[in-house]
Amino acid sequence: MSFVEYSDFIQDGDVAIIYLSHNNVMPVKVEQGAQTQTRYGVIRHSTDLIGQRYGSKVTCSKGWFHVLHPTPELWTVALPHRTQILYTTDIAFITMMLELKPGSIVCESGTGSGSLSHAILRTIAPTGHLHTVEFHQQRAEKVAEEFKEHRVDHLVTVRNQDVCKDGFGVTGVADAVFLDIPSPWDAVGHAKVAMKKHGGRLCSFSPCIEQVQKTCEALQDRGFEDISTTEVLLREYDVRTVSLPLPDFGPDPETTEEATPAAPPNHASISLKTTTLPREMPGHTGYLTFATKPRT
Amino acid sequence: MSFVMADNGDDDNQYRIKEGDYVVLKRGEIFKAVQIQPRKKVIFEKQWIFLDNAVGQLYSTTFEILSGGNLKPHELKDTASPLDAVEAGTDNRNIVDDGKSQKLTRDDIEALKEKGLKGQDIIKKLVDNHATFGDKTEYSQVKYIKKKKKKYENTVMILKPSCRILAMMYHGREPGKICHLRYDTLAQMLTLANIHAGSKVLVFETCAGLVLGSIMERMGGYGSVIQMYPGGGPVRAGVENFGFPAHFHDTLHEFPICHVNALLAGTLDTSAKDPTAENTHEKQLNLAAEKKQNQPEAEEQGTPEEESMVTNTGDDAGQDVEKTEKDKLKEAKAQVKKLRLEEKQRKLAATAALLKGRNADGLVIASRFHPCPVLLGLLKFLSPSRPFVVYSQYIEPLIECFKKLKECGGTVNLRLTDTWLRHYQVLPDRTHPLLLMSGGGGYLLSGTTVATDHSKPAGSKQAEEPAPKRQKLEDTEG
């Protein structure tokens, strides 16, 4: 198991994802002899997990669930939050717009809880590298630990410093830079330094429009091109079958036949497969500002 | 286009445009994918261009289009902006739109264009000849210049292709070719399907190869991509536009879906003597052509299978008294055909072997076909705990898929979604949303496979479980 490579069977030391239900997903550090409590009962790692196939059903005293191979997408919904995180919808858009692919060198700040980081690592493996900067010491340590547990530490360097003051710690190597910090305009200069001479892509994520304005201005001043700001929103449909009753207008006077094969609808109804939407659409996560660094 | 290693000395080399490269032309928000070919006329935005002068230049260079169609790298002169030393008004209360503000006529402007005047200069002339330009507010003046720039600047930028650029291009230019798949939806697909280097991905698409190419880009030449295709052959013209290095194509396989059932049942014969349908047809055409050319040989040709033995028969039977040039040529052609057929058979067998294990890591479907049967048919090839994503321009087919999957079991985390994209104009004191792209981007159904439940009698897939990979599930349950 690793977050960048599939395997078939659960092994001691793996991080597996317990899928209990649609919005109930939790990570489990698989350990010989260990046990994990769930609302369905106890999971005994040695018998229920180790040696089982990923995707297997595990039955506990009060119910059952499936064990899944970790992916960055599952990790995003399962991970313990230390900060507000980026969700898959934004992550997917960022990945494409930054043109990330195997071999890409990426700089990121702030690392936060590592949600985006894991997705980046999955995309740039096996030949790329992620330089991620986090100014909070404990968070930096925790995320570095997780990278190791998830067997992706060879692809990433975590630096505990302030990107606005000290930059990313590398020069002229990045194909892409991602900023998710309170004052991204202060890091634009450092981003430019970290990026390849030939150019690259940049993305800044900010919840507030004022931040976006300041960042766009800074990008303009530093010679970035193709500056554009977008937001992407996800809408999830709830699939269900509904039953619509049919009205009874009384016996049809035009009908001359006796017993019609289709009995006149009395309390009949039509069954439909349809979708409904949640009352409120998850609104705003943040604005995504993209730009291209030209050749310098 | 070759990917030169960094230790090649000339670091710039990989960033330079070469003959034969697949590139993307860009002006504003308009993109067009073309191949750099010598002395080839390319049409872009109602202009004929020759790309010869681009060879040797760096990617992302902006070129001026000279009269005659040749390119010249655009120099960004620090010319005075047309707005320097122009006064501005405070509001538009006195500005009357009578259509008479601009003194230059269309003919005047055409004449200027023909004289070879650069875009920047034409705009300056337009500003100079605008009666009420000085009354406009500053913001209005900037907006006016921007609009004219878009219209009169005669430049084009040459970009290296990428999924992002091509997806935007197809969506803007030919959405019908890609089932109206919007680029943000494509972005979701690639991530939800966990496309990454080293995996084995199945793809069924009728999006001109855009989806296939995007997947290949995200796999970086590692792992394998198997394109399941309907009909005679895989359509993947769009893949060329990505300009992948040759070795990427080694990871791309194809398999005709008309053989899926046979493969699943274990009855697919991939030996050389069993040609696929289209080859039989090809052979019959060949037979007919040869019959016309040479009467005596026609008697030897019976069933299509024997055609591959034409050359042998020719040698063995003592009938070839004198081998004419024509005969030799025909033999050579038949030999080439035979080799090609064998190669095709070999590839088919190799792809079948990749599929037989039913251990693919991901499935992506994006086509004009009804997704339900495609999904149900191809899901069987996935290992448990692997993602799948289905795109559809319409929501109803996905509702059906959702329901079917719930009935059959074997999947979790099913989600039916779409994404909205909203663009913003960000300018000091002028920030506001622009477009909202909501409908029209298509819908996605995503989920993860799980081991099928043996204890459940209904929807049990026991019959389809591959024998050597019997689940340990049976031991843990009960």
From TrEMBL, chain A:
GO biological process terms, semicolon-separated: tRNA methylation
The keyword Endoplasmic reticulum appears for this protein: no
The keyword Iron-sulfur is annotated on this UniProt entry: no
Pfam families in the cross-refs: GCD14
Functional note: Catalytic subunit of tRNA (adenine-N(1)-)-methyltransferase, which catalyzes the formation of N(1)-methyladenine at position 58 (m1A58) in initiator methionyl-tRNA. Catalytic subunit of mRNA N(1)-methyltransferase complex, which mediates methylation of adenosine residues at the N(1) position of a small subset of mRNAs: N(1) methylation takes place in tRNA T-loop-like structures of mRNAs and is only present at low stoichiometries.
Stated family: Belongs to the class I-like SAM-binding methyltransferase superfamily. TRM61 family.
Name this polypeptide is given: tRNA (adenine(58)-N(1))-methyltransferase catalytic subunit TRMT61A
Native source organism of the sequence: Pundamilia nyererei
Gene designation: trmt61a
From TrEMBL, chain B:
Keyword Nucleus: yes
Keyword terms of this UniProt record: Coiled coil, Nucleus, tRNA processing
Keyword Coiled coil in annotation: yes
Region (Disordered): 288-321, 451-478
Start-end of Acidic residues biased regions: 297-308
Top-level division of the source organism's lineage: Eukaryota
Annotated InterPro entries: TRM6
UniProt GO cellular component terms: nucleus; tRNA (m1A) methyltransferase complex
GO biological process, one term: tRNA methylation
Major subcellular location class: nucleus
Coiled coil spans: 322-349
Positions with biased composition (Basic and acidic residues): 462-478
Localization (cell): Nucleus
Function statement: Substrate-binding subunit of tRNA (adenine-N1-)-methyltransferase, which catalyzes the formation of N1-methyladenine at position 58 (m1A58) in initiator methionyl-tRNA.
Family note: Belongs to the TRM6/GCD10 family.
PANTHER family noted in UniProt: TRANSLATION INITIATION FACTOR EIF3-RELATED (PTHR12945), TRNA (ADENINE(58)-N(1))-METHYLTRANSFERASE NON-CATALYTIC SUBUNIT TRM6 (PTHR12945:SF0)
Quaternary context: Heterotetramer.
The name this protein goes by in its record: tRNA (adenine(58)-N(1))-methyltransferase non-catalytic subunit TRM6
Gene (name only): trmt6
